[in-house]
Amino acid sequence: MSAVRRRSAQAEARAESQRERILDAAQKCFVEQGFHGASMAAIAETADMSAGLMYRYFESKNAIMLAIIARELEGKRAKIEELYTDADFPAKVLEKFRLWQTGSAGVMNAALFLEMSAEATRAPEMARAIRTSDTLTRTDFERWLRRGREEGGLGLPEDVARARGVLMQCVIEGLVVRAARDPEFDAEILGEALEPLFRLMGFESPAPP
Hints:
By secondary structure, this protein is an all-alpha fold. It has helices at residues 3-33, 40-47, 51-57, 61-83, 89-102, 110-120, 124-146, 158-181, 187-201. Helix 1 packs across helix 2, helix 6 (110-120) packs across helix 8 and helix 7 (124-146) packs across helix 8.
């Protein structure tokens, strides 16, 4: 690799690191202060950088939120890919619910999910981004359901996979809201309540919490 290309790669890596730092700081501020309550100055302070430097990467809070939505989409699609090699989907759902309850790093923060959903009702570009994210995620999930069992899927016909994909997306979104509203909700009770649904979809019963 030439010196010029090496410097270019290093600069790109530094820029990406700075962007991630800003997104992490913004996510923390949005969760703690709400989207409208969090100022660009507060995000810059949380990221431990000057506002001027931050504006080099993102021109507004809306631009930051759109980048967070894109990052969350990438993460969700990667998690769906992992399902191809993990047969215990019900247990995965309960595991995610517990993580949403505690606000653990590495999963969609439930409070942030509510902030994004609320902002989508006011900002058309946010609504479009979330619709695109939802559509791609659902398509990935349906593709997994159509895969043969030998490939880790359920081998469902296309129309059945589509219907169950919509159903599961609604269930998952409802669980995120429940985790945000009731962080003490008993996951064991949830597992028992979801068991008939998982049986209907062709999965095994959830593992005991």
